[in-house]
Amino acid sequence: MSVFAPQRMVLRDGSEVILRCFRPEGDMASWCEMIRSCSRETLWRRFELRSADIILSRPRDFCKCEPGSDFILVAEREGKLLGEARLCLFPDGETAEFCVLVADPWQGLGLGSLLTDTALEAARRLGVRRLVVEVVPENVRIVRLLGKRGFSFRRDPDGRIFRGEKIL
Ligand SMILES: CC(C)(COP(=O)(O)OP(=O)(O)OC[C@H]1O[C@@H](n2cnc3c(N)ncnc32)[C@H](O)[C@@H]1OP(=O)(O)O)[C@@H](O)C(=O)NCCC(=O)NCCS
User: Fold this and answer.
1) Nearest atom of ligand 1 to the alpha carbon of 102
2) CATH class of the domain whose range is 7-132
3) DSSP string, the chain
4) Which end of the chain has the lower number of beta carbons within 10 A, N or C?
5) Nearest atom, ligand 1, residue 111 CA
6) Predicted confidence pLDDT, tens digits, the chain (168 residues)
7) Where do the domains of the chain lie?
């Protein structure tokens, strides 16, 4: 089932990106390049790891795209990947974990919001009923971004993680 046709979008600075599905066969090198352009802080907030080397030593483990269980949306410009949003579908068929990443040079241009809104729309079309997300507590920006979109957050008992949830 095709849940997503490529879309051309305009960022806050007037530049264009294409939002499309990740292609496991053709996009790995560009995905690794995107990871190289992320700061340690961005990697921490997305992967809870500060080193790109660990991710790049086994990129396929961090960039799994299992047909039927993962939906990965990427933002591309001229062959370069600028960001991604993904839904990892749980076996119950109703729940998916959401995450999003925008590489540092392109943060603050509205791309994270675009990727998030587009992934939420794709989740609805995939029949997802409940979205969950795990973030480090210092990640105020994503808590605010998702809070505006109806996610509610609670802190884990040990205080290490914020868990968010949205019923679609
Ligand atoms: C969170 C993230 C995806 C946001 O992407 P982005 O493209 O910068 O987001 P946007 O430009 O759409 O801005 C989203 C909000 O953050 C705010 N924001 C963006 N850059 C900011 C900055 N440098 N400082 C403070 N706020 C900022 C924007 O004002 C906007 O708020 P608004 O909706 O009230 O205007 C991006 O910062 C990122 O990849 N962070 C690291 C990975 C991560 O945290 N992932 C989430 C874990 S699942």
Assistant:
1) 39
2) alpha beta
3) ------EEEE-TTS-EEEEEE--TTTSHHHHHHHHHTS-HHHHHHHHS---HHHHHHSHHHHS---TTTEEEEEEEETTEEEEEEEEEE-TTSSEEEEEEEE-GGGTTSSHHHHHHHHHHHHHHHTT--EEEEEE-TT-HHHHHHHHTTT-EEEE-TTSS-EEEEEE-
4) N
5) 7
6) 467 899 999 999 999 999 999 998 899 999 999 999 999 999 999 999 988 999 999 888 888 777 678 899 999 999 999 999 999 999 998 999 999 999 999 999 999 999 999 999 999 999 999 999 999 999 999 999 999 999 999 998 888 889 999 999
7) 7-132
